[in-house]
Amino acid sequence: MLGAILATILFSCSAVSGRQLVKWLPGTEVNFWRLTLASLLLGTWAHTMSEGLGGGALAVFLISGAIGFGLGDIALFQTYPRLGTRLTIMMVNCLAAPFAALTEWLWLGNSLSATEIACGAAILGGVGMALAPGENPHIDRRTITAGIAFGTLAALGQGLGAVLSRKAYAVAEAAGQPVDGITAAYQRILGGLFVTGLFLLFLRWKKIFAGKDEAISPTPTLTTKEKWRTAGPWLAFNALVGPTLGVSCYQWALLTKGTGVVLPIVAITPLTVIPFAIWMGEERPSRRALIGGMIAVAGAIALVLVSR
To answer: Per-domain residue ranges for the chain?
Structure first.
């Protein structure tokens, strides 16, 4: 229980610090360097205290990380500057649950019950209510449309990455080489780091040869040195609380209490983000947006409970 509560708080801090980072640095660059720092920290544990790159399911963990930490987080950090912390985390965390359930149904043949479908509908309805353009007058329609598109991709990546991670644990268990949570997180992050690095190189090439950069340029008036001086502490903090400690606490919680207890607790992350976001000076959500968010979170918790 403690691990799940700590993971929820740490993920909230990661979300808010991630939103601050994209004010100074491009999202893909932020994601690459935070994963680099996290891989160094987690790798130190994995190679000195555990299996390192062993365990019998490395390939599946790498693919899981490439989709979840790579493609999913690339989209996540493109959503932050468009929708803000609260809407981004609410959308991604809540949509990831039905996407994961749908993936398991299509891939593993785990059919959806009428109750699960109803929970999925509640999630979509709550997300739609919270993201309604009329409830977010500070965001123009074009920006919110792009944010929804990136947020949906982030949720797809998170959901599919979670399913693949479950598959990897099963493969390792069947091979008689079970992997601890920190080592699994390390192997997944390596896959995400590879994909993010490739994408960052592509953006560099695009900028040099085509004269273009990412869609939203943070603080263009600051020099590169000034941006890094400001963003450096936030980057270290984000790498520590998110992909390092947050994921480690999440895996620890799963080892001690099981998904039926852990996932409903972690599903309230979108609500715990709200006071942090307000404290950091972001917008105060309207009553309708709060109700929509609570409906979506309740639907996500219910979906996890009825699925277990």
So the answer is: 2-307
